[in-house]
TrEMBL record:
Keyword entries, A-Z: Coiled coil
Domain spans labelled Multidrug resistance protein MdtA-like barrel-sandwich hybrid: 73-205
GO molecular function list: efflux transmembrane transporter activity
Signal peptide coordinates: none
Organism (species): Gluconobacter roseus NBRC 3990
NCBIfam families: RND_mfp
Coiled coil spans: 150-177
Protein name in UniProt: RND transporter MFP subunit
GO CC term, one of those recorded: efflux pump complex
Family (UniProt): Belongs to the membrane fusion protein (MFP) (TC 8.A.1) family.
Domain CusB-like beta-barrel: 231-303
Alphabetical list of Pfam families matching this protein: Beta-barrel_RND_2, BSH_RND, HH_MFP_RND
Keyword Coiled coil: yes
Ranges for domain Multidrug resistance protein MdtA-like alpha-helical hairpin: 111-172
């Protein structure tokens, strides 16, 4: 009886061991199978696809701009001397002819006095020569003197008169410089800069000298009742600059507020370094709300001249030696590279002139190691990930309505 019990226990233990071993084998086989399946699935890249869209009938772009005064004049001195007094500070509203500062120029005063004295001297000489010439002409009529003597007297009179004219011009010159001892506003506006103080030495044609020897202006006066807006427009979008167009302008200091600028003119030439053309707009500035030098964000909208083309996200383009390509997914989820001809390119989208069909499924941002004929797994991007503005392949309203 004891022998039977022992055999039963041993048999039960062997069965338990066998079941445990079988469990381990099955679990290992399952793990290997799962790993193989996950590895095979991981070898197929996940991609998101988009379809070409018809270009919008209007083209819109936002560019940086710079606001400048309608008129802006740096004021330099025309005489050398010391600043006696300045009268207009930063932000002062001035009228044309208002005195901004006065310059004390004793050397100029002395030269002016000398010029007037020289004029008086040559004037006295001229008067003497004129009297003498009149006497010689009277005697010449009676044949009392020779004709040569009369001619010499006339020449002396003319020479003295020329000296008077030269001296008078010199006096006029210094009189003009004397008026420049007062710096005046050239037009109605606002003082936007003042770089002068009482006692500063200034010289003819420039302000105070800095360490490099160059001169700076003493004042800057700007007319800000109306402003100029300058925008650098890329070459490929320069066609939007048309007479009558307007731009919506926003500035950092007035968030949520929009100003309207009217197109005025363009440079009609491109900068070879930036491939942009300068466009000038006019901006009304009631109450001088905007200041010169303000950075502006300028939104331009115009009619699209190529509204029948397709556009795709710029991130879908593949730059190859043979030209531009896009990666297209066929019905069997295989990748094929298609040559395309591109038109205007922007940061977010690019126009396609040829090479695509509206039903093509284009990979957005294709992986760099993706090869022709590879199998891919098309997935729908998480909400907020697809920021291209193009519908994914899973959307029901891709482009059917565009045909």
């Amino acid at each position: 009886m004891a022998s039977l019990s022992r055999k039963f226990i041993l048999g039960a233990g062997a069965c338990a061991v066998g079941l445990y071993v079988a469990f381990l084998v099955v679990d290992r086989v399952h793990a290997v199978s799962t790993l193989r399946a996950e590895t095979n699935a991981g070898a197929i890249p996940d991609v998101s696809v988009v379809s070409p869209h018809r270009t919008s009938p209007k083209v819109s772009l936002t560019l940086p701009g710079n606001i400048d005064a309608w008129y802006q004049a740096p004021i330099y001195p025309q005489v050398s001397g010391y600043v006696k007094m300045w009268y207009k500070d930063y932000g002062a509203h001035v009228k044309q002819g208002d005195v901004l500062a006065e310059i004390n120029a004793p050397a100029l005063d002395a030269e002016y006095a000398q010029a007037k004295a020289s004029l008086a001297s040559v004037m006295a000489k001229y008067n003497l020569a004129s009297v003498t010439a009149n006497r010689w002409r009277a005697m010449g009529k009676s044949q009392s003197v020779s004709g040569q003597s009369v001619s010499v007297a006339n020449a002396n009179e003319q020479s003295a008169n020329a000296e008077v004219q030269a001296a008078q011009r010199n006096v006029d010159h210094f009189e003009a410089l004397e008026r420049f001892k007062q710096l005046v506003a050239p037009f109605d506006g606002i003082v936007t800069a003042r770089s002068v103080n009482v006692g500063d030495y200034v010289h003819n044609g420039g302000g105070g000298l800095n360490a490099t020897g160059s001169a700076s202006e003493l004042f800057t006066v700007a007319d800000t009742d109306k402003l100029r807006l300058f925008v650098s427009v890329p070459e490929v979008f320069s066609y939007v600059l048309q007479d009558g167009m307007t731009a919506q302008v926003t500035v950092p200091q007035y968030a949520g507020r929009t100003f309207t600028a009217k197109y005025l003119t363009t440079s009609k030439g491109y900068d070879p370094n930036t491939r942009t053309a300068i466009a000038e707009f006019v901006l009304d500035n009631p109450g001088n709300l905007l200041w010169p030098g303000t950075f502006a964000s300028v939104a331009l909208t115009a009619k699209n001249t190529d509204a029948n083309l397709y556009e795709i996200p710029s991130g879908s383009l593949v730059f190859e030696e043979k030209g531009m390509q896009v990666a297209v997914v066929d019905a069997t989820s295989h990748v094929h590279y298609v040559n395309v001809q591109v038109g205007r390119m922007a940061d977010s989208s690019t126009e396609i002139l040829s090479g695509l069909k509206p039903t093509d499924r284009i990979i957005n941002n294709p992986p760099a190691d993706l090869l022709e004929g590879d199998v891919v797994h098309v997935v729908t991007p998480a909400r907020g990930y697809n920021e291209s503005g193009f519908a994914s392949d899973t959307d029901s309203s891709d482009n059917d309505g565009d045909e």
